[in-house]
Amino acid sequence: MKNILLGIGGLVVLLIIVLVTRTFLYGGAPEGVQSVDLPDPPAVSAETAAQHLSEAIQFRTITVAPGDPRPGQEGPWLDLQAWLEETYPAFHAAAGKETVPGGLTLLYTWQGSDPSLKPLLLMAHQDVVPVNIGTEGDWDAPPFSGEIKNGYVYGRGAIDDKGSLIGIMEALDALARDGFEPRRTILVQLGHNEEISGSGAQAGIQLLQDRGVEPVMALDEGFMVLETNPLTGGTLGFIGIAEKGYLTLKITAKGEGGHSSQPPHNSATVRLSRALVALDENQLEADFSKPPISDMMRVVSMEMGFVPRMAMANQWLFGGMLDSQFSATPAGNAMIRTTTAPTMLSGSAKENVLAQRAMAIVNFRIHPNNTPEQVMQHVRDLTDDIGGIEVSEAEGSIGSEASPVSAIDNRAYGVLNAVAGEVGRGAPVTPALVLGATDSRYAAAITDDVYRFMPAIMTEEDITGFHGTNERITVENMGRLARGYGQIVLAMDAGEE
Q: Is pTM, for the whole model, over 0.90?
């Protein structure tokens, strides 16, 4: 017995040594990230950039449903595009502009001197989401006024995505005025309907593909440097190296209907409810072993206490605990798995009539670890034993697979990492998964290196303005955007592929 106890004690000691050693060796910047010295771009006035954003916000380029803008309603887009040409004459003189056939998406080409270098593709979008009717008075400034107030530019599109659009234009116009002549061709695509599926951007990417264009990098919106971020509580830069896919399913349960005074057991509505509960309680599995979540945990572990760092370093033992902790919040859960969201329900037309057809619409945001086919099979497997359940893709659903995961060991990511580090005043930077959809998902057809980052620093309060009330961006951030995009262009022009 003594020998057994000694053996058990020895194993415990060995386990502790392994856990502690792995913990101290774990963490830091992801392997392979290149160190890049950033050049200084021409100076751009933050106040001037903010004033230009204010003017751009006043063009009501609102999209609501597929097909927008409808024939005869293109005025705001055409006015915005004319304003861009007037406001940024040096860039427009240096670059060729074309409208992508079939819409109002713009494609600029600033020809480089070295055709052996792959071009750089910068992306943004012109359209914005509407403001919910009745909430206009909740804003601190009218939502389409572009008012500059207390150091902020207010208005729909300030962050999503006219801030980036204006930042790109400010940087490129300043470079053109300064006499910059690129070695690497610079492409700028400004989608006209990103908020309603991005068919314009898709057409623009198809046009480039038809021309045999293979960019060295495609850069779009998606992430920024975030103060008081929910993972560590401190400042952390996020660079999107992938984004989730999208799938909407219709789940239908059929029944006989009839009068509610004589309800059957296991009615259509009950069976549908059981199906939704099963989906909620049996989420698709998380996987912490693959990028971007594996790289993110290495970075954030250095900013956390010993116990959470030990859990991340020893997932073979604490994987279940990590899953529980991430799953405890909606944002954390969305980072690690495909999410399941019942969003619409329908049944009987009257309170005393049994439903003959109960239906639920369930939206899935697909993690790069999964495919739409796997999600569909997951739903069918969970509902198969309920009986009488039909699963189909919802009509009109905008379905897409998760994007490929882009590399972090190339110059493109190294440049973005350096820019994010400067914007965050030396804060750590991590690869990350974008939870929503951007126009850049189409760019995977022409390049393996697609990233989602805007060189700005924001608070949690700032980002609540995305599609919400009081969307705004600081005047200071407009200066950062112009400088950051200028640094990206110059650094990519100077570097080897």
A: yes
